[in-house]
């Protein structure tokens, strides 16, 4: 009897362990990311333990089953800031980080700023890690993640990253990648972030898939002073291939995304909802294939005045995509100014692992972000 009970208990534990892991497999450029693989899951209980698991040299599956609140872990700092967007209470204020106000906003009024120090620099993530959330309970509050300095093979799935000094530009980014390879970011919700929700820095980020995320731009403070966040997805780089698929971008007003610096972006089946400024900004070195996207209530789908890159967004001369990538491209819905026929984009993508494209969805909101695996 006792023996049978023990066996049952072991079986129960084994099935729980077996059930914990990354859900599904990555699509697109980072399709060979495996993260922590089948390492035994660990469940951090404190912010220190989470930082330690993320930053060490072990392959790890790290499961978040509660909120890790970094708001006060390093205390606050008071310093000088500036108000380039005005002094209304719904405008963001900039921290004078690295003398940004002094150097770039000499005409803006200065003001005092008090912010949480932990938010300024994200948690370092090492190679071979899976960071996953249980249900809707895995939240990192007040601090972001940094996947940088040669790190490779990282999966982040089904967590929320929230409340990083949202009133302050330079208050912190949610997810930073800079000099990395094979990063899959999936079903993440980001909300109330000071600076970028996603930022890929100027170093090579190689193969990245950003899929099914909810970028919630609603904020009480914004650089456009209208409740819509301006700093959303900034894809810089020197050799970056980014799959951006199935994401839901809500209440943004700019840089959603900004693409430049030898970055190949496959933007497919994303949904923009209520953008008061621009979605795409494509600078020099940005190569964008945009297909199957849906734009609902977007003021400017692509900012034409800053367009210096290359764009393919229309397969109207039918057979063009087929001849480069082996299938037809899918039309965008309400694409407006997002109109390009550059075959340079397609020739760069020839032979690459591309995500599939479905028709432009009219409601991906229900499948994006944390809790929608
Ligand atoms: C990541 O895992 C791969 C495969 O096991 C291994 O070769 C590599 O050294 C690991 N990277 C680090 C930084 O531990």
Automatic annotation (TrEMBL):
Domain Pectate lyase, residue spans: 94-301
Keyword terms: Carbohydrate metabolism, Cell wall biogenesis/degradation, Disulfide bond, Lyase, Polysaccharide degradation, Secreted, Signal
Q: Which GO terms describe its biological process?
A: cell wall organization; polysaccharide catabolic process
What does the record give as EC number? Answer: 4.2.2.10
- GO molecular function of the protein, one example? pectate lyase activity
Signal peptide (from-to): 1-19
Name the reaction it catalyses: Eliminative cleavage of (1->4)-alpha-D-galacturonan methyl ester to give oligosaccharides with 4-deoxy-6-O-methyl-alpha-D-galact-4-enuronosyl groups at their non-reducing ends
Q: Which SUPFAM superfamilies does this UniProt record tie to the protein?
A: Pectin lyase-like (SSF51126)
Entry's localization field = Secreted
Example of a GO cellular component annotation carried by this entry: extracellular region
Offer one Pfam family short name for this entry: Pectate_lyase_4
Would you say which domain of life the source belongs to?
Answer: Eukaryota
> What is the role of this chain?
Pectinolytic enzymes consist of four classes of enzymes: pectin lyase, polygalacturonase, pectin methylesterase and rhamnogalacturonase. Among pectinolytic enzymes, pectin lyase is the most important in depolymerization of pectin, since it cleaves internal glycosidic bonds of highly methylated pectins.
Q: Which family does it belong to?
A: Belongs to the polysaccharide lyase 1 family.
Q: List, alphabetically, the PANTHER family matched.
A: PECTATE LYASE 18-RELATED (PTHR31683), PECTIN LYASE A-RELATED (PTHR31683:SF16)
Can you say what this protein is called? pectin lyase
Lineage, top ranks:
Eukaryota, Fungi, Dikarya, Ascomycota, Pezizomycotina
